[in-house]
Amino acid sequence: MVELETRELEYVLAVADELHFGRAAARLSIAQPALSKAIRRIETRLGVPLFVRSSRHVALTPAGEALREHGRHALDAVGAAVRNARRAGETHAPLRLVLKPGGDAGLLSGLLAEYAHRPDARQVDILFSGPADRTDFLRDGRADVGLLYVPFDDLDGLAHETLHTEGRVVVVPAGHRLAGQPSVCLSDLEGETLPSWKGVPAGNGTGPEVADVVQLLHMITLGRTIAVLPRSLVEPLPPGLTCVPVADAPPSRLVLAWNRQDRRPMVAAFVTAALRQRRPAPPSDPREPAVPCAPQDGLRVPADDDVARLSGDRRRRSVGLDAQATGGRRALAVRHEHG
Length: 339
Fold this sequence. Notes:
Elements: H1 6-18, H2 21-28, H3 32-46, E1 51-53, E2 58-60, H4 62-88, E3 95-99, H5 108-116, E4 124-128, H6 134-139, E5 145-150, E6 158-166, E7 168-173, E8 196-197, E9 209-210, H7 213-221, E10 227-230, H8 231-234, E11 241-245, E12 252-259, H9 265-275, H10 304-311, E13 334-338
């Protein structure tokens, strides 16, 4: 069996990313001749070329493409294992909660207060992330728990509990043709420009790329796009914008999620506190039209089943965390960090 060290994988990935030995060597802080020799030794050991080289060009071979893909996953797994091992041995480590700015549906203050009353409460570090990487924080160990939105976030490999369910609205400029309507159907949005989210390749938007809700609302104000969002993410709206309920858009769920393999008592304690702050599902919006919206094949907003099909796992509802933490009472401190 051919074995590679993590450092050797880092060498391969650096050259694969840069497609230039000089830039890759600078990134790795080693000399270019040393990097070239290391890559040749790796190729000799594997018995296949990883790169096609010329005086002006470096390209990946099929073997190099395969090693880049699987090697990156391997390095991520090693990094996660190291972080999780260190965290498991830290008896007083803070609990890290990841969310996007404003992505708590107004629950965060109450949730933290509920947790702070527990005798086993720890300090909570809050990490803010972009639209596409909150689940990565949970999978690779950078965060312990996270507030995610279903169906927007992929819950594959994560356990979760729903804390809040709400309808979705379309956000439009005040002068838009749909502004002032009591409600609309998805078919009413056909032909409209939807945004594309930075780092989210699977979206169906063709409009401007945005990284967060603040950027999105600014683009909507300029008339460059419209968007279908959970109501809590956009209220209160800035001047010049209005929102209209979308009657046939699947509801959005705010969930507390954590790695399914994480059985630590401190995570169980936080989940227990969060469930005490769970809001009941709201009644049907009386503004919805009496006549159901007609099926349409154009614009499509994903439903919860879409996420379940992506993961192939419909057993995510179990908390699986019955163990409760013990120990002396600790004061809760919240430190905001950008992840």
